[in-house]
Design goal:
Helices cover 11% and strands 37% of the residues. With 678 residues, it is mainly β. The termini are far apart.
């Protein structure tokens, strides 16, 4: 200091310089003070921008007035499960009002919030400070009365509107704000609703178990033992013809032995033919003499199509397109075996289902494999024809892994680029046939019964234990996979025709060993299903479907001396409960099925269910947030019915028509298959 004083006259020689120096120091000190004040104010302002709804109304009119996102009250059990969830970026997912989750999130237990309107603040990546508050009044009743709100800074209102809702007026509060979004309600009209997929089932709220059911094998309805038929007669397709008042069936007539060893001078069934059968009830089938084509000098046969080359399949359907030409009322797709386009997919049209015209190639072999049954139908849902066929791709270590492909067309002649069918899980199986079809009880639902192809890598001793080992070894003379492959049937469904919900367990297995099953060719189900009377007199109808067995047994006809019918395929009828391919089941401990929010057009609830003698079902109508509506709960329901009318204290659902609701089915030793509101 002394040194400084000694030098001071020489450094600051006059008064003006000293004044300038003091002014700079003062300005610097003022800047520091202003910065400190601004910092404190900004922090205070940020806190104010994240206050509760009540506090929001007290905030001064600054540049950032908070906007109420949601508010309300709810009475909850003190011992209830935690009900407040928030995602990491600040977006509310499971709010107190029951708003559904937008994203998965950690749960925040209510006990982490104090009773003094404590704020739980969560800044997110977008700079939003969400504030949740609850005020708890603990009563002797053991309940919490919760008041809650969610606010955001006003400058983020546009972002919030885009991300989590639209601006609306809160009826319980004078403040305009942004309401939390709910799941978009599904409008079901009066359509049947099945439970096979997650289309209308809230899987997060459902505790019952989805269970697959197998069909029951019934009687043999057809034996393909005519000279133009045989042990390879397959790929059956059937449908109801309302004009003829008949069920009509098309299938291939051929014998594998004749293809491998044709007898000189005899017309060989190597030229695969298209044959025809019909039925009035779906149970008794006949093969009429059509008199259309000559076989071995006679037209007394049921051959509907044949030429010198033959067909590897022939899928027929009756066109339901209202704009369809009468001359094209019946349509078909088939793999044609002619030399110029061998193995390609051709399309055919007919005015009556008997006389057919080849309309040319639909797809060449560079886009698919067409040697299993290809399916096609017209969908009124989108006004398009949907085609399904097989392809081979390099997948899962296989150079030729079998997959299903699909394409669409507005007119049946010009087709889109095919795409592979997708699944909602990542479990991949080889699919041979596809059997995709609209479900006859709701054509917005597509069901499929594809053949699953399973090929072992080598012969093991287990093959020796299977009955019919001799047939298997005989088939291996021509191709190793004919002995190492086994097939069964899966069940899957779709709402868009491209992505399918698939059960990985078999829907139908080859069944008990009988000497000619458990081979490649088992469980090939016919396309189509028929509603038939139950085998139990007086019971509800059931669904009949068909599958053949006995494929390629004639390979041993020189080694075994049996009746000729032994070397013929046979078509068996199978039955299953209406809508009963799968259902949600709960055991004695109970479980529930909860729907997503939906609106409806009908008034009367119909339910397809079954219980044990001691089991039951209760049905409760909920609002879109999951809260019960009034007195809309049934008394105890028990029994076994495919269409039970459900009443709510003597009321139907007509008063709730146009409102968004959910349904909760509480099950005890019971199963739910489907429902409708009509």
């Amino acid at each position: 200091m002394q040194s400084y004083i000694q030098k001071k006259p020489s450094v600051l020689p006059d008064t003006h310089v000293r004044r300038a120096w003091l002014l700079c120091v003062a300005l610097l000190l003022c800047a520091v003070c202003v910065w400190g004040v601004l910092y404190v104010c900004d922090s205070f302002s940020s806190q104010k921008d994240s206050v509760t709804a009540g506090a929001a109304n007290k905030v001064d009119d600054t540049t950032s007035t908070p906007v109420v996102v949601a508010s309300g009250s709810q009475e909850t059990s003190m011992h209830a499960e935690p009900f407040l969830s928030v995602v990491q970026n600040g977006v509310i997912t499971d709010c107190l009002d029951g708003s559904p989750a937008l994203l998965s999130s950690p749960t925040v237990p209510t006990e982490n919030l104090s009773e003094d309107a404590t704020m739980l603040q969560m800044p997110d990546e977008h700079g939003l400070d969400f504030a949740l508050t609850q005020q708890t009044n603990t009563a002797a009743t053991g309940t919490n009365d919760v008041d809650y709100s969610l606010v955001v800074p006003a400058e983020k209102e546009d972002f919030v509107n885009q991300e989590i809702g639209s601006v609306a007026s809160d009826q319980s509060d004078s403040t305009n704000g942004v309401v939390l979004p709910t799941q978009t309600p599904v409008h079901i009209g009066d359509d049947l609703q099945v439970v096979w997929d997650d289309y209308l089932i809230d899987e997060d709220e459902t505790t019952a178990t989805l269970t697959l059911h197998q069909p029951t094998k019934r009687e043999c309805v057809l034996t393909f033992d005519d000279p133009w038929e045989g042990d390879a007669s397959d790929y059956h397709v059937l449908f109801w013809d309302d004009e003829m008042q008949l069920y009509r069936m098309y299938y291939l007539g051929w014998n594998f032995h004749d293809i491998l060893n044709p007898e000189p001078g005899v017309q060989s069934t190597a030229k695969i033919k298209v044959c025809y059968a019909e039925s009035e009830d779906g149970i008794t089938w006949v093969k009429p003499n059509l008199g259309i084509h000559s076989f071995n000098g006679s037209t007394q046969n049921n051959i509907v199509l044949m030429d010198q080359y033959g067909y590897d399949n022939f899928y027929v359907f009756k066109d339901t397109n209202p704009n369809c030409k009468p001359s094209e009322k019946y349509k078909a797709v088939a793999e044609y075996l002619g030399p110029s386009t061998y193995g390609s997919l051709h399309i055919y049209t007919s005015p009556d289902g008997y006389r057919w015209t080849d309309r040319g190639m639909c797809f060449a072999t560079n886009v698919g494999q067409f040697d299993s049954v290809n399916t096609c139908f017209y969908s009124s849902k989108d006004g398009l024809y949907h085609l399904y066929f097989r392809n081979k791709v390099a997948k899962n270590g296989f150079p030729d892994f079998r997959v299903i492909r699909t394409a669409t067309s507005p007119d049946f002649f010009a087709w889109s680029t095919p795409v592979d069918v997708q699944y909602t899980d990542d479990v991949a199986f080889q699919m041979y046939t596809n059997n995709v079809q609209p479900y006859y009880r709701n054509e917005n639902i597509y069901v499929a019964f594809p053949t699953r192809y399973v090929q072992r890598s080598e012969w093991t001793e287990n093959f020796d234990f299977l009955t019919g080992a001799a047939f298997r070894k005989a088939r291996m003379r021509y191709a190793t996979r004919y002995g190492l492959a086994i097939t069964d049937t899966l069940f899957m469904s779709s709402r868009d025709g491209v992505t399918f919900d698939k059960f990985n367990e078999a829907w139908c297995t080859p069944g008990p060993e009988n000497g000619i099953n458990w081979i490649y060719g088992d469980c090939y189900f016919a396309y189509g299903m028929i509603e038939t009377p139950s085998a139990t007199e007086g019971a509800d109808n059931e669904i009949s479907m068909y599958a053949f067995e006995g494929k390629w047994t004639d390979l041993l006809h020189d080694e075994l001396e049996e009746e000729s019918s032994y070397y013929s395929t046979r078509l068996y009828r199978y039955t299953i409960r209406i809508d009963g391919f799968a259902g949600y089941r709960a055991g004695w401990d109970g479980g529930s099925v909860v729907t997503k929010p939906f609106t409806f057009d009908g008034s009367e609830l119909k339910m397809n269910f079954k219980t044990s003698a001691a089991g039951h079902v209760y049905v409760t109508v909920l609002d879109e947030t999951g809260n019960p509506i009034g007195q809309y709960q049934t008394t105890e329901l028990f029994g076994d019915s495919t269409a039970r009318t459900v009443q709510f204290d003597g009321k139907d659902l007509s008063a709730l028509r146009g409102q968004t609701i959910r349904l909760r089915f509480d099950l005890c030793d019971a199963e739910l298959f489907s429902f409708s509101i009509r």
